[in-house]
Amino acid sequence: VNHPTDCVSEAVEGMLLSTSHLCALHSQDSVIGVVHRDITSIRDKQVTIISGGGSGHEPAHAGYIGDGMLSGAVLGKVFASPSVSAILSAIRVCAGSRGVLLIIKNYTGDRLNFGMAAERAKSEGIDVEMVVVDDDCALPEGKGITGGRGVAGTVFVHKVAGATAKCGGSLAEVRDAAERTARQVKSLGAALTVCTVPGCPPSNRLDERSIEMCIGIHAEPGQVEEVGEDAPLSSYVSRTLLNNLLGHGDTPGRLKVLPEAELAVMVNNLGGTSELEMLVFTRDIMNILNSRGFKPVRCYVGTFMSSLEMAGVSVSLLPTDSYLLELLDAPTTATGWRRSAIMGQTGPTEDRIILSAPISRQTEDIRGGGVCKGAEAILRGICASLIENEAILTEYDSKCGDGDCGQTVRRAAEHLLTLAHEQQLCWEDSARLCAQLADGVSEAMGGTSGAIMEIMFRAMAAKFRGSSTGPEQESSLQDWAVAFTAGTEAIIKYGGAEEGMRTLLDALCPAVRCLCEGSRGDLAADTLIKARDAAQVGMERTKDMTSSAGRANYVSIESLRGTPDPGAYAVYLAFASACS
């Protein structure tokens, strides 16, 4: 943010600049909330609905202002309830002949301030009702008078109440719909990191091996659990949250429903969880619900109620019926709401698979270049070396790329070793072997690295197909030198990079030149040693090169200096292994 004290007002300004249906609500030159742009006409046509609370939970609550949801939202400072005067101002602006419904989350500050504002509004003759949402199930049932906190399930209450109001419901009907939804919805969350309030120091409450179950949306502490480095984290979190909500074994859950119940599911991003992680978590949640006999009929995935940048998730479950589904499916112009597909119409995932078209020319049809004597031992050695050096490849790539080189190369090496172990590589034909290697790296690596390696091996296979070496003859070093030259030229042609641009070509090109020069008379071992040395020299040079290609082109020379290009280092490892 620019400044902690300005972040809420500046966020509202950003909202106004990116939408057309909102207006800021001001009091004495300060922003206290947001209302629908057409509030003066809306308030006499339907019950108006106001929500609000502390900021930092975006898109809640202003993101739910729109036709079919909220009419206004009162915004406090980050994680701080808005004042009574701010709430009363919003009520006065939104109040019309049909009355006003306040929907708030169960926090002491919100209950007191919204409650006081409601009483003052009633004393002015405004018809006001208030619904308190307490969907969080972190606190054991019956413990104290606090009750559950209001969390992401509040958004379901917004939607149902808003749709009811839009349909012309009276204040009592809108209140009853909101209360019924608030009683039924249950939520629970977990996080890997806690959030940092602007202007406050970051928390070190959780380390990289910890996860906090039942955490609150203001980072209120939950139950810290240690997780193993290789633990299936999403599976564990989803199972734990659903066991608490639905029960497990002899332990009852907080949601009193039986299998076969139809559920609306909200998978909520607490702010700092990636889309990829959200989809994995959604997959686990839906699979567990289906396996336990429940029927998820709607699934809402996204950021509905965040906790600043907290890396966490929450799950909200709402039992549904046909009437409730109509209200959830009703249209709204609120930008924060995400529609759900009608899950019963999508079919199981195993029925939604389209097989890829068959390859027109199979690898088995590719022949040429003769027998590859010694190729198996060389390939196994190269793969073992690349696997062994995964960590250093990752370290180098983290400094000059996206940090995935080690994992990508390891995947390819392990896959090729599996193919060799299962005798799916043809050592009796050079062209076919290169084509199989191309298939292997394409399948296992993906990304830019996979494409580069596949291009090289495809070009090598094509060169061997045109070789004059007979099928019973042994492919010579000269044959392999010519094939590697063709592969290198193909990388340059299609990849666009050249030697001197700080890529794997800086090690590969000089090594291939040594293969070509040595193939005219040197012993194979001597030639490989020269190629290895040339690859090493080329790799070392990349430490002081300015990058002109790939992701490293975006990194400053100061950050790159002293670190070799990871691709060039992998090429050096391959030639060094071939020598041994």
Descriptive notes:
By secondary structure, this protein is of the alpha/beta class. It is 44% helix and 14% strand. The chain has 19 helices and 14 strands. The protein has helices at residues 7-18, 39-42, 84-94, 108-123, 154-166, 171-184, 233-246, 275-291, 322-329, 375-388, 390-400, 405-421, 430-444, 447-465, 477-495, 505-518, 524-541, 557-560, 566-579, and strands at 22-27, 30-36, 48-55, 72-78, 100-105, 128-133, 186-191, 210-213, 223-226, 247-248, 251-252, 262-269, 295-302, 312-319. Strands 1-2-4-3-5-6 form a 6-stranded mixed β-sheet, with helices on both faces. The longest helix has 19 residues, at 447-465. The mean pLDDT is 90.
How does the SSE layout of this entry go?
Layout: H1 7-18, E1 22-27, E2 30-36, H2 39-42, E3 48-55, E4 72-78, H3 84-94, E5 100-105, H4 108-123, E6 128-133, H5 154-166, H6 171-184, E7 186-191, E8 210-213, E9 223-226, H7 233-246, E10 247-248, E11 251-252, E12 262-269, H8 275-291, E13 295-302, E14 312-319, H9 322-329, H10 375-388, H11 390-400, H12 405-421, H13 430-444, H14 447-465, H15 477-495, H16 505-518, H17 524-541, H18 557-560, H19 566-579
Parallel strand pairs: 3-4, 3-5, 5-6, 12-13
Antiparallel strand pairs: 1-2, 2-4, 7-8, 7-14, 8-9, 10-11, 12-14
Helix pairs in contact: 3-4, 5-6, 7-8, 10-12, 10-19, 11-12, 11-19, 12-13, 13-14, 14-15, 15-16, 16-17, 16-19, 17-19
Explain briefly what this protein structure is.
The protein has helices at residues 7-18, 39-42, 84-94, 108-123, 154-166, 171-184, 233-246, 275-291, 322-329, 375-388, 390-400, 405-421, 430-444, 447-465, 477-495, 505-518, 524-541, 557-560, 566-579; strands at 22-27, 30-36, 48-55, 72-78, 100-105, 128-133, 186-191, 210-213, 223-226, 247-248, 251-252, 262-269, 295-302, 312-319. With 580 residues, the chain is of the alpha/beta class.
